[in-house]
Amino acid sequence: MKGIILAGGKGTRLYPVTQATCKQLLPVFDKPLIYYPMATLMQAGITEILIISTPHDLPRFEALFGDGSHLGLSISYAAQSAPRGIADAFLVAESFIGNEPVALILGDNIFYGHDIAAVLKPCTQLAQGAMVFGYEVKDPQRYGVLALDDSQNITAIIEKPTVAPSPYAVTGLYFYDASVVSIARSLKPSPRGELEITDVNNAYLQRGQLQVRLLGRGFAWLDTGTHDALQKASTYVQTIQERQGIQVACLEEIAFQQGWISLPELQILAARASSSDYGLYLQALSQSHKLSFSL
């Protein structure tokens, strides 16, 4: 399965800070925001990743990640010249997707939880249809909301309802088969002039091919579209890292754990960042594994 990170948009809700840089490069505690969705795709076992952003911002992401080979990834880039909706990403990425299934994650979404890889990896085996995730929120009217029957099957997805049929919002992480491109091409723009991801999901629902997984306690989904949400996400990450002594969304650690880079390669990456706490964490990680290998 291939992966797409949609990192476009103007970030107008975060003005004035996004007048100088794009939202997905703003810091969430000690890492750029885009590290977190990148980590989610990597934890799912996805190595072929396309970053979609504005023509203005793409060079910044290329400077950050390059071709991804240092992480055992293959990262490519594509421009979305105007914010035409989430579903437009599949049209931008048509040649990248080809006839393969694809995961799409929004560049301002953070997912964290114990053994999240065990939840994500089965989704990459999706041969037909689509998989979305639901997360209980206190203000579902702000999101696309799941309507569920007594057996927790989806009956509808309603975009920003006045009265929510459930407390479960659809998160910004989606898994699709290759037919998602033809579905996106068949959509008509919504009243706000965009191709809506809810319309894609409802098309799969009408086919009887839409599955949902509800993320319960033990998982966190953070949408960082406002200053308040961005600050709370930073505090959340800081608290976990300081309490548990681990790094959230440490791309080099994930790559090493997945077997995509070797111990010597990890040590080289750690040395490059040695003057930061992040680099010191990588050094400690590589040293602990070096000792375990020698025993």
Structure write-up:
By secondary structure, the protein is of the alpha/beta class. It is 34% helix and 23% strand. The strands form four sheets. A seven-stranded mixed beta sheet has the order 5-4-1-6-11-8-12. A two-stranded antiparallel sheet has the order 2-3. Helix 10 runs antiparallel to helix 11. The longest helix has 18 residues. The protein is globular. The two termini are 37 Å apart.
- The strand line-up of the biggest sheet is 5-4-1-6-11-8-12
Order of helices and strands: EEEHEHEHHEEHEEEEHHEEHHHH
> Total strand count, please?
13
- Summarize model confidence as the mean pLDDT: 93
Shape: globular
Q: What portion of the residues fall into strands of 2 or more residues?
A: 15-25%
Helix content: 25-40%
Termini gap = 37 Å
Structural class: alpha/beta
CA radius of gyration is: 19 Å
Give the low-confidence spans: 291-295
Largest sheet: 7 strands, mixed
Q: How many helical stretches?
A: 11
Notable traits:
295 residues; alpha/beta; two-stranded antiparallel ribbon; 13 strands; globular; disordered C terminus
What topology does this entry show?
Blueprint lengths: L1 E5 L20 E2 L2 E2 L2 H9 L4 E6 L4 H8 L8 E6 L8 H5 L1 H4 L4 E5 L2 E5 L2 H5 L9 E7 L7 E5 L5 E6 L8 E9 L3 H7 L10 H10 L3 E6 L3 E5 L3 H18 L6 H7 L5 H10 L4 H18 L1
Helix pairs in contact: 10-11
Short description:
The chain has 295 residues and is an alpha/beta fold.
